[in-house]
Every structure is written in C-alpha cells, then in structure tokens.
Amino acid sequence: MMGIQHDQKELFSYRVDLDKRVRADNPLRAIREGFDFSWVRERVKPLYGYNGNVSVDPAIIMKMMFLLFWDNVKSERELMHIIRERMDYLWFLGYGLDDEIPDHSVLSKARERWGRKVFEELFVTTVKRCVEAGLVGGRKIHVDGSLIDADASLDSVINGPPELIGALKRAFGAQERKFDYGNLGEPYYEPKSRKRMSKTDPDAPLVSRKTGDFARPRYKQHRVVDDEHAVITAQETTPADVAENTRLEELIEAHERNSALETQTVVGDKQYGTVDNFRRLKQRGLKTHMDFKHQAPAKEGQGIFPTEAFKYEPRTDTYICPEGKTLYRRRYDPRRQATEYHTRKGVCEICPLRPQCTRSKTGRTLMRHLEQELIDEARRESLSEPARRDRLRRRILSEGSFGQAATNHHFKRSRWRRLWRQQIQDDLIAAVQNIKTLINHRRNDQREALALAKGLLIALEKTFRPLLDSITAFQKYLSRIKPSFPPFAH
Fold first, then answer.
1. Which residues contact 332 (CB under 8 A, 6 or more apart)?
2. How far is residue 146's CA from residue 269's CA, in Å, rounded to a whole number?
3. pLDDT tens per residue, range 391-402
4. Three-class HEC string of the chain
5. Does 39 score more than 50 pLDDT?
6. Beta strands at 287-290 and 265-268: parallel, antiparallel or unpaired
7. Rounded to whole angstroms, what are the CA distances from 393 to 261, 327, 400?
8. Which of 119, 172, 243, 256 is the most buried (most CB within 10 A)?
9. Rg over CA atoms, the chain
C-alpha cells in the first residue's frame, strides 16, 4: 500500500537531541572535541563593563567568525540565516532549536571592541596545537606572498601629487607606513601608489598583479609554511606595494617565536633571492635554498665574461681580469653596501678581450658587496640539487596553501575595509587552514590505528586457527561417544 506524507507542524518536540543528529564524522564534531575556544572569554573580559546589557558569549562570537571562513559563507547576514537552518551549526555553537540567534551586527561590534590581537592569538594557538601534535618540523620553511583584492572599486581612486595624497591619507586616518619600499638593488625606487589613493579604503595601495594589468587597490599576505605538513606557522598582512623580500627576516623570527623551533633552511623564489637576504641569512647560519636574480643574464648570454671569471685579491682589495689587468676600488655605495671596481683609463680600450668583456665605452665595472664571501656561499647553496628539489616542493606547499585558501576560504577578496580588518581576516583564514590540517591528521591516525588493529586480529586468527579447529573437532568427537559405564547399583 502506498503511503502519503501529511505535513503537520509539531506543537511540542521533546525528543530532539542535536548531539545525536550530528553525524560522527562531521568535521565540526572533531573541531569541538579537539579545539577549545573558551580562552577568548578571559582574554576579552577587561574590554567589557560590569553592568548594562549582557553580551553574547565571546567564545560563541569567535566560533561564528570561524564558521564564516570555514564554509566560506557569503556574508555575516547570510551566516545568521544559515545558523537557524543547520543543526550542526546550532550544535557546534551550543544553541538549541528554539534559542534566539543574535543579529549580524554582534560580529562587527566584537571586532571593533576586541581589535586585532585576539585574532592573532587564535592563529598562534592553532600553530601551538599543531606543534604539540607533531605536525611542525620547524627546521625547513617555505616563504611566499600573495595579493588580495581590497573591497574598493576603481571609481573610488583619486590622483594627485605625493604631498596631496599623503595629506589625504592622514585626514582619512590611513595606516602609517612602517614598511620599506623596494630593496637595496633599487635605491631610487618609488611606487606609483604614492600618487593615487582609494577613498573607500585608503590603506590599500593600487598595484597590478603583473606587467600590463590594471592596477587596483590591494593588500599582500606574506606567509611561512612548514615543510612537514604545510602548517602555516607565521603570516603578515601589509599594503600590496611592500616587497616580499623586505619581510623575510621578520617572518623567520615570527616562525621561531610561534613554533618555539629553530629554523635551519629557508626556501623561496626569486622575489626573496636578493643580495641583502642572502647575506643576512648566512649571518644567521641558515641554509639558503632560494632562487636568485642574476646580475646581468642578458649580457652573459651574449658571451660577456661573468663576474666569476675575475679573480679577487683580498690583500690589495683589487680584481684581476681574464687578460691579467687590475681593477681598482673606485667608490662605495652605502645604500647597496657595495664597492665598485674599475680599470685605469684607457686599459680596456686596447684590450684584445674587450668584445668578450664589456659593451661599455668606459670599460668593465664590477660590484663587490659587503661580505661577498657569504653571498657567494649562499648562491652556491641555491644552485645545489637539494635546493632545486625544495623549490619544486615549495610550489606544492606554499602555492597550494594559498590556492586552498582562495578556493575554500574567501582569501582573494577582502570582506572588510582597512588594513587592521584585513589582518583579522587573514588570521582567521590561517587558523581555519591549520585546524583543518590538525583534524585531518587525527583522522588519518584513527584510520591507521583501525587498520593496525584489524591486521593484528587477522594475524592472531591465522596463528590460533589450527588450535581452535582442533578443539572444535575434539568437542564433536566427545559428543558422539555414548557412555559405556554400568548402571549405578542401588
């Protein structure tokens, strides 16, 4: 007989147990059991008063913002609607079916009240949990950066001289500049973003992703990914015109501070392979598996002698060219921390090797940087086979980390405006990714434990099966034997 469902709203429901309704393998169950958000209460307690309206539990607010990026919910308004409909969200937050869900403005007010530090602590806490779980080796790290589109359109951009733009930024209360531009190899570099500003988000300078693209307001995230399980151990958000190579040492220090582990090897692309970074990392005693920018690849490709063809004489502080002529010290560039060497006037003009040495009318010039021996050692390391393999692995770990964040956790576009809010967004995204790595690792451990137990049972069965079969056969034999004893005499 065919049945028909008759829809009727229940007046009372006493048997609903959300704990039973949420499936055992729901990721939120693993997060609730393995990660505690209650520490937020004590951390933000001084920021609340002692009378007036009672706020929403800060731990619940943090969980809501966590869910916002965990499932890449479109907006905070949308999140509040979804919470009412999803039993796993209600169970994760500790709400019942009939509990009132707070307004979305609770989240924005909490961010304003708490500031960025609380969310940074959330991220650092996830790093420590991963370290405790053995997911962070700490010795080898991969560094990379990625651009993030700000929540501002090109219509909000105004142009003007740097002085006017600077005054407008101060009037808008824009973030004070704390980062250096460019690098030591570009002493006269001045970003075009100093002449343009977005009125919607004055903290986000206009930067293009590649040559020829339109520049638009953007931020940049600098990230350290550990080599063991791609755990994000350090991250920093800056305006988009901050060069990646200028943040390398700070990222290394943050990695060591957050993980309490010492770095031994740094892996990076050409963005980080500057002379200054090579020197500083070797001063720290680190291995430099970073690619480097060649001094003059075009000239070397035209048959010009490379710098290595010139012999340095430390006793006289001079260079000897392939023809045997001497290049003397001419001047020192304090910004680039390099000394320029040049031949005497007229020497290069009559040299028979001139076509293979220089195209300059004034002769061949060499630059020797401060502590050049350390730089040369670092570059030799960067050309080694282990360094090449590490840079290939970096594409999987670092770029994969950014790809996962962009695909699943709303990384490529700002939800909120101004730098400190963008930093909160990146703290939450990095925390979500680390927690996902943590629970996936625990699931794998459980699977391995189950597989090990199953294998042990199979081995035991194979070992004792002959004995069990013998006992069973003997029992059957005894059951077939009739008693042959005489009857009991009364």
1. 338, 339, 340
2. 13
3. 999 999 999 999
4. CCCCCCCCCCCCCCCCCHHHHCCCCCHHHHHHHHCCCCHHHHHHHHHCCCCCCCCCCHHHHHHHHHHHHHCCCCCHHHHHHHHHHCHHHHHHHCCCCCCCCCCCHHHHHHHHHHCCHHHHHHHHHHHHHHHHCCCCCCCEEEEEEEEEECCCCHHHEEECCHHHHHHHHHHHCCCCCCCCCCCCCCCCCCCHHHHEEECCCCCCCEECCCCCCCCEEEEEEEEEEECCCCCEEEEEEEECCCCHHHHHHHHHHHHHHHHCCCCCEEEECCCCCCHHHHHHHHHCCCEEEECCCCCCHHHHHCCCCCHHHCEEECCCCEEECCCCCEEEEEEEECCCCEEEEECCCCCHHHCCCHHHHCCCCCCCEEEEECCHHHHHHHHHHHCCHHHHHHHHHHHHHHHHHHHHHHHHCCCCECCCCCHHHHHHHHHHHHHHHHHHHHHHHHHHHHHHHHHHHHHHHHHHHHHHHHHHHHHHHHHHHHHHCCCCCCCCCC
5. yes
6. parallel
7. 21, 42, 10
8. 119
9. 33
Exposed e or buried b per residue across 466-476, where buried means at least 16 C-beta atoms within 10 angstroms of its C-beta: eeeeeeeeeee
CB 439 within 8 A of CB 31: yes
What number is the average pLDDT over the span 364-379? 90
Maximum Cα–Cα distance for the chain, whole Å? 141
Q: Kindly report whether the global pTM for this prediction surpasses the value 0.70.
A: yes
- The residue whose two tokens read 């034999």 is 477
Range 339-343, long-range pairs (CB < 8 A, 24+ positions): 339/367, 339/368, 339/369, 340/365, 340/366, 340/367, 341/365, 341/366, 341/367, 341/368, 342/366
Place of tokens 């069990």: 468
Percent of all residues in the chain with a pLDDT value above 70, rounded to a whole number: 82
Distance set, CA 127 to CA 131, 232, 361 (Å): 6, 7, 57
Among 110-119, 170-179, 198-207, top mean pLDDT goes to 110-119
Q: For 139-191, how does the pLDDT look when each residue is reduced to its tens digit (9 = 90+)?
A: 999 999 999 999 998 888 888 777 777 777 777 666 555 544 444 445 455 55
Percent of the chain's residues with pLDDT above 90: 51
Q: State both tokens at 256.
A: 């060591």
Residue type, 210: K
Token representation of residue 135: 């997911």
The pLDDT value given to residue 451:
60
> Which residues partner with 147 through β-bridges?
220
Do the Cβ atoms of 402 and 411 come closer than 8 Å? yes
